[in-house]
Amino acid sequence: MLTELTIRRAIFRYGLMLNFVFLSALSAFSQTEIGGVINQYTRVLDQPGCPNVIQVADAGSFTVGQRVLLIGMQGGQMVIEDDASFGAVSAEELTAGLYDWTHIEAIQGNEITLMDPISPGYDFSGIVQLVGVPTYADAVVTSELTPLPWDGALGGVLALEVSGTLELAADINASAMGFRGGQSVQAADDNCNLTTAFRRYFYEAGNWRGAPKGEGIIPLVPGREFGRGRQANGGGGSNSHNAGGGGGSNRTSGGNGGENREPSFFGCSGNFPGLAGFPLDYGPDRWFMGGGGGAGHRNNTSMSSGGNGGGIILIKAGELQFNTGAILSDGADGLQASGDGAGGGGSGGTIILEVDIVSGTPAVSARGGRGGNVNNQSNRCMGPGGGGSGGSVYSTSTLIEADLAGGEPGLSTGSSECPEGPNGGQSGEPGILEMAGIKMPSTAFGLEFTGLTADTVICPGDSLDLMVGISPTNLEVSYQWWVNQGGDWIELVEGNGISGTSSPNLSIDQLSVSKDFQLEINTDCTEPQRSDVIRVEVSDGPTAGFAYDLDGLTVNFINSSFGATAYQWTIEELPDYSSTEPEPEFTFPSYGSYQVQLVARSECGQDSTVQLIVFGGGPVAAFEAESSGSKCVPVTVQWIDQSEGVYDTYQWSFPGGNPSTSSEPNPVVVYEVPGEFDVTLTVSGELGTSTQTREKAVKVFSLPQPAFSYQIDGLSVSFSSTANASLTHIWSFDDGSSSNEKDPIHTFPGPGAYDVTLNLQNGGCANSVTQTVLVFTTKVEDHALRPYLQLSPNPTSGPLRLDSNHPELFPLDLYLFDARGQLLRTYELDRPRMLDLGEYPSGAYFLLGRSALGSGSWRIIKH
């Protein structure tokens, strides 16, 4: 809907565009020569209503359609405590530096309507000024172009706009036209002596203990005008006695003033010079003039004022052409003093160059002022001033270079008691060059809805209260509530339980059906605006519902309930789980099926829903065995379930085993009889049943019982196994030889006793037996031990005495054989002893001995 306000603004903007086109067309034929002061200035007193309307002190020099710059020069809060934080400023409390680049739409008396709404945050109780900005097609600076010098309320800002080329044949100069330096005051009745020390950060104006502070973005505080504490970005004035003032600051810091280093023990020192101004590094969205330097302390007639800061220069041009001119916004030097403290240097100002093309050799400067020098008497060492900081330059062209050096401190000279130097005075820091241009005006011309009641749900018959907040709050606003009836929006009227239809707060006693509402607002400054739709659902109660996403065992629940204000999640199989989050995430402990319940509640009641969530598919039976390693009865086997899917019951079948059935997951079964046995596992669950049978899964064998006899024929021995020939026979003859025959004949390599082993194997089941066999010939030839062992009597009726006097004979192993070579007995001796052969029948016997000394054999006759 086109309103009168919309049409009027559109026509005005179109007129500005035509004017710009007309000026551009003339640029080919004319070039305006400019110099001196080209801007108009007036103080802005208030913003009476609409966000684009301001009240000024004098609108007489301004015209409709004129380009203007609205800028906050001073305003905000600074620390005023008597400590080192005096003069510090925070961005949250700062109103100075704000600006708006716009046009004048209308003028009525001293009330000016701007094309765009101004930025929020201006403090009109501080210093805000409106600067008239001339616009040109092409222009050439033929004589020095300056702003009106800052006088504490107006000036300090130079701004111009050129659609074509701006040529510099002379300087554009705002040097020393910014915040003013502290103006030197001669202290009266100076009662300084060697016992006094003046440490305070402020004194009232006229107090001999301090000197005036430099000017900054915060106005001087009554009763705190003097002293070493900084004045926001203005440098502090020196404290007594005869120390130097502090340098002013812009985005970076100036330097502290120098001390009065009194040579005489009984003289007055000045150990508390002025401090540098507070740096205002708040970026390109705030523009500041350079801070003034603080005054040096003086009690004589020498002037010791601080230097002024540089002003603000704003140039918007299609092309900036450097010829013989430069762009300057330097801080002024502190004044030189004789026999007193000197003033601090002013800070460089701020230069904004929004240009498309740069030609020629750029000459741009925003240097800090030098601290004032002191010309001492030969026996004195007064304090010089601190240097001012470099200024700020913002440019949209990378071709711009600038001299942003900080000012050096002044020097204490002419003394025979101390060397020439700054006496602790400091240089100002260099300034900052940054790529930036002019902040565009706000396009949000109107009111803002705040605190809008959200979409809501009520129960049938409940009362309804809807609220909407409006920002800004200083405008006269008319209100009208609307309701949607069958697709048509109609105005609500008072009555029948409805009130507040023309206010920000709507009340309805009872609402029985769901409705959509909107609030319309209107002012003399803005077009009608409507809030977002507020949906009010009348619900008999909530409806519970949910979906879910699976990621392994992790579930993300998606709540699709309607009309609920609270939720309760539970899982039947996990009684310890509960959640009141609208959409919880939960990791389940294992595969299986779970009953998940969601209860949705509201003031109108509750509803619940249950879903079965299944992890995994139907069961697939599978198992493996872990046996004891033996295949001989009894065999112990643990059966391990390796089934997959969702199941919760087991049924095992073990024919031939003990137990023969089981419902355990991993049962242990013992097989006590030989045979081959099947195993079956059946697993069951909500998703089905699966069975696996493994035939002959278990093979159990009987334990073999090996035994054998033998016949000796010299070195040849015939062996005979008593076992069945179907079993595997493995013979070991103790001489490195073996045989797999059932009844082998083996020839030993020589006489002796041999441990012959028969191993019988029945499948994987094995058992063995070992006998010692004495192999000899009719002539026993092994006599190695005979010299060391004597046997008597031989023949014997039974007792057989063994004697030896050799210490290494023992231990001694003896083997007693009959005449057929059958081993009858073994002896393990550790000393000589008596053997008893009385139990054996009469006949011939052989005794074989083995020790570390070798072996030997004896033929024994028993009567």
From TrEMBL:
Domain PKD: 559-614, 649-700, 731-775
SUPFAM superfamilies assigned: PKD domain (SSF49299)
Biased composition, class Gly residues, residue ranges: 232-258
Signal sequence range: none
Top-level taxon: Bacteria
Residue ranges of the region described as Disordered: 221-265, 364-393, 405-431
Pfam families per record: PKD_4 (PF18911)
Gene3D superfamilies for this protein: Immunoglobulins
Protein name stated in the entry: PKD domain-containing protein
Species assigned in the record: Flavilitoribacter nigricans (strain ATCC 23147 / DSM 23189 / NBRC 102662 / NCIMB 1420 / SS-2) (Lewinella nigricans)
